[in-house]
Amino acid sequence: MAEMGFAWLSAVGLVAAATLLSPSAPVFAQSPTGDLVARTELRVCADPSDLPFSDQEGRGFENKIAEILGRALSLPVEYVWYPQVTGFVRRTLEAGRCDLVMGTVAGDPEMDTTNPYYYTGYVIVLRNDGGLAFSGFDDPRLRDLRIGVIARTPPADLLVRHGLMDKAHAYPLTVDTRADAPSRHMISDIVDKKIDAGLLWGPLAGYFIHRDHLPLTMVLLKDEPSAPRMEYHIAMGVRHNEVDWRRKVDALIHAKQNEINQVLVDFGVPLLNEQGALIGAR
Question: What is 7-118+233-266's CATH topology?
């Protein structure tokens, strides 16, 4: 499936005494609130093949943002790789193998989340030569269009509410990102005129349009009464009992927000202000 250089953050800022686990193991610090975070590296939980977010080559925007945080902490960034499928948090963050999830919806109950570092939403993607200026789902011209949607994502509800599912083309939500990329397939199908439009998470749409210089336009989907939200604040995730660590990451986000924003804009992420207006799309 959303923001301060401090010298006291340079070693993750934990104040309890370190315990040496083994000659080759990282040194850890224990805080009064239960924090247990490696002081020798910034350990990030990430998907190995999930561009534009992350990959093993370090090409995703979450990789770039992790590097910004690592430099601020004077720590190398190390990754624990696991596909973004069921069990991701349980097998990585909760298992103590890594200490930070780079991107999750603010308030995700599986984790304790930081302050948001960006705000974005779902979009409709249209061909520039399609002749449709999207203004809402009540437009009668939409009834003749083949609209792509990722199954079980919030925009699918809008298609149902507006009676537009008959010609919709559904793409799978849960896949192994090492073998499949439904969002990329949807974008390709729009370009190739196999479908007329697509409803997609903004960072995905913006990435492909920006990277490949595609003749496509994306328009933000607005929230509708009693429907699922279309816009979300995105935060980072830590374990629930690591309050000190979360506060330190909050401070880093605040200090490096301008650098973070530049990375997001460079990747074509449509950034919103708190009033829901686009401020950083390309």
Answer: D-Maltodextrin-Binding Protein; domain 2 (3.40.190)
